[in-house]
Amino acid sequence: MKIWFDVEDLFEYARSVSRPSGIQRLSYEMYAALRVLDPARIGFVRHDMRSGTMLVSDWAEVEAVFARMTQARLPGGGRHSTGGQPSLMHSGLGRMPILRAVAQRMPREMRQPLGDAMRAQLGVLRNLGRAARALPEAFRGQEGAPAAAPAQGQALREVARPGDVLASFGSPWSLPDYPGLVARTLDGSGLRYAILIYDLIPVIRPEYCDAALVRMFTAYAEGCLPQAEAVLAISEATVRDTIAWSRRQGLSLRATPRAIPIGTGFSHATPAPVLPAGLAPGGYALFVSTIEARKNHALAFRAWRRLLDELPPEQVPTLVFAGRVGWMVEDLMQQVQNAHQLDGKLVLVENPDDATLAALYQGARFTLFPSLYEGWGLPVSESLSFGKVCLAASTTSVPEAGGAFCLYHDPDSVTEAVALYRRAIAEPSLIEGLEARIAAEHRPTPWSATARAVLDALPPG
Q1: In this structure, are residues 370 and 296 in contact, taking their beta carbons and an 8 Å threshold?
Q2: pTM reported for the whole predicted model
């Protein structure tokens, strides 16, 4: 039995956003761990937009596009390549700073139509290349040679065996008619279907999302969940959300959702030798996240304003926002600008590469994550992987990610957050004690444990 992971969403995301978000990082780490654990059972597919089919892809393609987003080196020491896949953001237009900046700030669901025409043309060239690569294998097959492994570009329905699994473990909800594509691929093929749910925020808390995302995610969840013979989730909180929402919607699930363990942190790059923006080790609090309404940067900004009103400025560490500027934060960014970045006490490090991010984590006094709603809380577990205490939201899945190693506050209460932040600043022993506890007691979850849980949840059919 083989598990075929649909990775088209990773390529779609990389076409218009230069740095991976949590979902892309998590899914990539999981795929990589699965390949190490049982490579013979793991395959990948992408989409042919013209024919509306899924085609066998290659791990090298996945590895290359992720390396480009993280600016990592590929095995053998070479820099990443685009795998023959030019993107809108890396074409001549993409290199124009103004257009690139505008596109990066647009919701992904709005960017997709802009690239459809270009992708259709690229698809023709890509399929010609796949046909050329498959030609020698086809002739060898005609000569009676042993059957080779599925060649890149073959249709999944032609190579999949009954009992194989098609797995949607990324973020495919913005792809056109995704539930329909899944249904057509499964029909009469003997394939089973599995889905991984990160969160149901667009349907449970739509106020934090773009209206187009809400529409597309609703169609995705309502169309794909009932087809799945295995429903996995990244937290117990997401399991509860999935069960409750499905009941409210009248959806009949074929499988009871189950949580899988999530690996702690990501593959760490070598930290950059110098911190950005003149920051000094131990002199700042770090908030790593895409800057969007749900992540609650507004609370951190207001709390820091109050700290600066109540304490001498030299006692207040600099607040660092590290991440891409996303949606629904125009008012906040204007407030930050009007306040002159809190007179220099707020620094925005936009789209940091992995080396810079590692250096930022390494040098932070502590980290923040006051998110209003999460499916897991990757910045919390990543903070712990660097041995850093996180001052985090006490709701949804965040305490699952942080356990007993973090300090928590109500993400709706600026007053409660200020009290906790002030205590962390005024009582260094509080942070030092928790750091010692992290060092002594925290047991990171390896991504191999995530991979094993996936394989256990998808037994041979």
Answers
A1: yes
A2: 0.84
